[in-house]
Fold U3 small nucleolar RNA-associated protein 22.
Amino acid sequence: MAPAVKRRKLEHEEGNSGSDASSAEDIANGAFSSDDDERDANDVSMDDLEDANDDATSTDGPAEEDDDEEEENEQVIEAAPKQQRDAAKPKDGEKPKSHKHSDVQLQDGVYTAETFKSNVFKLQVDELLDQVKLKYGKKEAPAENAMRTLKSVIEQIPSREPQLLAEADKSLKLSNVTIPFPNPHPPTDARYKFQYERPASINVTGSYPLKTATRAEEGTVIDLVVTMPKVIFQDKDYLNYRYFYKRAFYLACLAAGIKKSKEHKFKLSFDRLNGNQLQPILVIQPNGSGDGDDFSSSKCRINILLAAPEGVFLDAKLLPKANCIRPKGDETETDHKTLTPTPFYNSSLRSDATITPYLKLLHSSTANCDAFKDACVLGRVWLKQRGFGSALRKGGFGNFEWAALMALLMQPNPGAGAPPLSSGYSSYQLFKATLQFLARHDLSKKAYLIQARDVTFPKSGLAPVFFDGARGLNILFKMTPWSFAQLRLEAKITVDTLGDALFDQFDSTFILRTDLKNYRYDATLELPLGALGLDPAQEDYEEKLAGTCQKVHSTVVRALSDRVTAVNLSLRNHQTWKISSSRPNDNVHDHLVINIATDPANANRTVDHGPSAEDKQEAASFRKFWGDKSELRRFRDGSILESVVWSTKDASASVLEQIVLYILAKHIDIRISEDASFTYDSFAQLISSGRLQGQSGISAFTPIMAAFTQMEKDIRELGELPLSVRHIRAADAQLRYSSVDVQQISPASIVLQFEASARWPDDLCAIQRTKIAFLLKLSELLSTSHKNYKTEVGLENPSQPSQNQAFLDITLRSGKPGVPDFAFRLRIHHDREATLLERQLKDKTLDAQSRESAAVALALHNRDFIRVLSHTQTVQNLCTRHTALSPAIRLTKRWFDSHLLSPHIAPELIELLVVRTFLQPHPWPVPSCATTGFLRTLAWISRWDWRHTPLIVNFSSTASEAPVDSGTAGSGRMKAEDIEKIQTRFEAWRRIDPAMNRVVLFAATNQDTDGNTWTDRGRPEKVVATRMTALAKAATAAIRASEATSAIDDKPGSAQVTAESFFVPQLQDFDFVIHIASKYSQARRKKRSDEPKFKNIEMQQATSQSKPAPLARLFAEDLQSIYGDAILWFWDNESMLSIAGLWNPAVTAQRTFKVKPGWNSVPIASRVGEKKEAKEKEGKSVDILTNKEAVYNEMKRLGGELVSKIEVNR
């Protein structure tokens, strides 16, 4: 069966659709660049490559412009694109394209898993590429005209004679232009002169003519590269910032010349190239006047970059280990080898000189590999969705670095074997192989060299090294240890994701944004720059900031060690500034943000073990690092180790917070402990025992699990039972670590099954009576043999003889002061019941009502005695394996409760939603705390199109398999056939029940392929499922908005949202709300139980069996029974503060008079029209309408003092 087609939206603005590429003769020697992130310093130029220009900028033809314009606003991706049926047919008058590599496209549209993951994945990739690529229509034409104008204006700027610094600065200030000198500023007594001459060349460069440009939310960025002439430089200008000073002067001259032009007006500003203060650029934006130079409609901006002429400096002078910043007055060639290397300075200069060589590399790769362009686009999308860019503060790895890395990995590397990439690869193979290279190679520890020999690197170099020997540049020079570690982690996750054999994971790879900190990290520390001892006004601020960030990162990583899996540092991005003003400094109140991803197995460890006391050197280093916190301790195994012990008594400060604040205050600045803002697992505080503090997430349930184990042992030891016990198994949320409250409120359900016996009766009613007899006998034996047990037999389902009729409540009394009692509700399972019910269901002689009753009883039997047992054991195992799963489930249930959805959604379904987040976490790692698990679950619910897509949870993605005797057919590992079976069953339900009156949500697992175990019989109804989705979307939007705000408004805590705000019910959305009196609400009882008590009172309450009945919940259930489907009821099972209702318009709307409609009604005149005349002829001229006021009075009378007030909203 064909897979369901789903339309997905990628986050792109409609204003970035394309235009036809102008021909090479229209754009002078040019190629275009469109960078998603900011600007790529190394985006390549087409200078000296006229043939390449003609090929790259060839027009698609004017006949396509109208079609392109119609497709501008299309922003959706379809799983089945039209390319499949059109690809094999050439257009009229067009020759079929020849393919150099026939292995990319196979016969009959069939693709192997190596070439493309699957046929559907190939179609999705094709549609993605079609959507994100620029259309090359008419939209960019105004921007192209603006570039031609700029080229003409720049060529007419007059030369400036060589001038000293003071004269040069003064001459430009007359034009109201400030030279954007980098820090440190040039000395006032500098002897070298500044000169402006006509550029050697002006080129438009980059990805636009190569057709690898993509749409971007912020608009298209086009780079215009101006190559400076050799005459303005001297041989020693590579030293002591002299090149960068002359570069800044040249850029200011360009700004002054363009500004001076009277015929053409543009909006000018300066910016940093990729955030590098050594490389300012000129930003050209439309003036918005609507004249000929206004290119606002293109939604583009033009960046004027400066390039150093080729060969102006010797390559050997700019190698990574060279020093180019000499002491004042020392520019000799003799002693510089002993000076500290300046790799970042050297690479910044070298990047200006390698534009044309990289153009040649990228263009040759495009010519030799058909799939190279598409692989570049896939890489761009992947990087953007993960927040990476070429800018220093975006990780230093963007579109250019991706393209250059792929191109270099296809080049032969003498002595290293075959290249990692082949020109015969498909775009998917190139993309995946590049990720595999990044995941497997730790370039921070071992440099990777391409066509390079005898090149050494500084030992103190902290940037990863991928050195291109032919062009003399480390293309990763802008990266930091933490950004490269994050890049490797993302690459590993994506490679693992693409290896999923069951799901195509297209959305996880290309559609979902993963750069949201609330989903990616567990803890955040915000440090004001002032607390780090940094003054942005100082000239050496940039250098000190980089050094401080490195020290902070290394210190935190060493202190946290295996407690964390990732530590990432981030700062607010730089902004542009006016050409008439100096470059703005960072605000001293800005924050350095440290984001931490934890390892839940170690994050809350209270003792850090150091070296042995016998290892003097290591022990001394340990004591020096930890200071007064270090102490020598003897452990149980006899070892004597240096150790650090952390306290868990202070619940407000987690172990992580204690470590980070202490170590940074000791090694960085003492003010950090006072000024820092630390956030960790901020939502966990909303549930009891939610935060993992030196313990696992299930430790709060240890008492009830111990009581269950003790009770099972005691029952098995009873020797006078007629049959031996086969097993006693848990069937309750409290016994699978997933109840919201760790304190027991209601008895925990358990199921007992005896060994098989032929003496059981073969009649359903007789079986129920036999069960009652067994329970009575068990009650007698247990209470007699063990005095600490209290037992009571109860009856249920009296009107349904086919369903279970009895249960046994067992209370295990501790008898110890301060230790609570535990209650269990035991039911007996006999597998013969299912056989008899199936026989009734197939009996054609029975009436429809009896068969329907048998079907309901069979479904309940399978759910309560088979599915729940299997589900409980699986969730138990998963909660033991994943530390954060239990608090994440409890937090998510609390969210459903707080929004009054819990009466409609089975707790097992909520557990499946959260378990899916942990077992299928892509594109993130497995959640490490309750908050990330909860927020990611809400994010998935907000995206879940439950009308067309089933929920499929693969329990076998870990080693958690169902027990052998669980009775489930699909208890093994999930296979592709299981997925197809589930999909077929889901589609069948949608065909049978298109209105979704019976099954709204479809949730299946490898243990339960039916899919409707927890959602049958309209639970939840469609309106409830819609509200669940709407609430999840609102919560996800709030998270995204808070992060977007924090990126602009850098204030403490601005990246965090208030946890409590997610759990406030929106009561105004309901038709009416019944408010429960405070003394009857469960929230009040919980609050009182949390208050400090005298010890004797606490002991009495712990041993007391008199728990107040949940009157408010019983009242809500009575209302539901009385008013049936006329009102849809909502309440919070945990607090019972209010009961909300929605009138069902299909039932309570005006209708023909009826004697017993099922609710209080009032007669009214029939509607005007033909129907009224027909009713009058039939003698039925009166209709009835719900008497809502009377119904409200009935509710208040029924509730009595339970009801404080009834609030009517509409």
